[in-house]
Amino acid sequence: MTHSIQRIAINTGGGDAPGLNAVIRAVVLAASNRGWECFGIRDSYEGLLHPERYPDGGLVRLTRESVRGITHLGGTILGTTNRGNPLRYPMPDETGRLVEVDRSDEVLAAFKRHRLDALIAIGGDGSLAIANEFYRRGLRVIGVPKTIDNDLDLTVVTFGFDTAVSFATECIDRLHTTAQAHHRIMVVEVMGRYAGWIALNAGVSGTADAILIPEIPYDIHKVAEKVNQRIAEGRDFAIVVVAEGARPVGGSYTVLEREVGRAERLGGVGQKVAHELQELTGKEARVVVLGHLLRGGSPTTFDRLIALRFGAAAVRALAEGESGKMICLDPPTVRYVPLEKIVGHIKAVPVDCDTILTARDLGISFGD
Ligand code: F6P
After folding, report:
1. For helices 301-319 and 20-32, what crossing angle results, to 10°?
2. Is 219 known to be catalytic?
3. Could you give the angle at the alpha carbon of 156 between the alpha carbons of 153 and 157, nearest 5°?
4. For 56-76, how does the pLDDT look when each residue is reduced to its tens digit (9 = 90+)?
5. The model's pTM
6. What class does CATH assign to 164-294+350-361?
7. For the domain with range 7-159+299-331, which CATH number is right: 3.20.20.70, 3.40.50.2300, 3.40.600.10, 3.40.50.450?
8. Which of these, 31, 33, 146, 194, is most buried using a 10 Å CB contact count?
């Protein structure tokens, strides 16, 4: 039998997403209402691994007062990192070369030392895989899915995605007028890692002419054909939305950077597509990379609401004695699913889904 909960920790890991603060607020209020004490770990697990680097010791008491007025704020009051995986922590060896070291025992020891009974880990697939490992090693853990990319399995959607798509759509709207005025091809590169959800949803909503996503490898000649067809019809500009993980038929992802202890950084495919389209169509092309702008700003109402629902559900799950579970949205409700079921799975866009069919019916090219 598990002992009752008195003190819980919360952390946010991986890239930030609008809605993180709303989750934190819901967790703190729901836990305080049960008489539990809440603590926030700074920068994912860094606050426990390097307390000396933080004026507050890396672990901060979270009260009703500390989470007042944060529901609408982007970012995370706790800080985050996508470098500090305690299971594969980058440390210099004796030659100064960075190698990956397992520091998970130090995290578990810190939980004991601070008498923390459970962890609510808010993060994407990397952070949830770490959370699942801590659960396997005996910690009581509930995961809350977060990512603007919407690539987590077993939840209909993650918070942050709606905000990112709304902003990307607004940007595409703005690019339409300048593309039309200058008779140009505007290529818009958006985040999304190995899934094309942001590109697809924003591209269809923003009436792009072509959308390139990782799930459908593209042939640049087919994209150029689409642009030329528009020109022949007297529409001498085009909007092409490119997911950062898009790749040509037979080719691979465009990678900006590889580093020990973190996932590869994608980026640059927009520039490549713009250059090739300019060559093939003779039309001037420009590229706009929306990048981290998609992670900023205030969460939409939809994202705030699911973030608050996820946070409260995480506390209810712990109160019900659950552990090793992830909160998921399964409309009209939220449920818990085993963390191990989502680890290592990327929710890609199904190539025959209704939104793809809609796009094709509207005449949008996927370059295939
Ligand atoms: O997963 C969220 C995400 O924003 C991806 O879309 C993107 O590839 C990655 O994070 C970028 O991370 P960083 O913060 O290291 O630039």
Report:
1. 40
2. no
3. 90
4. 999 999 999 999 999 999 999
5. 0.96
6. alpha beta
7. 3.40.50.450
8. 146
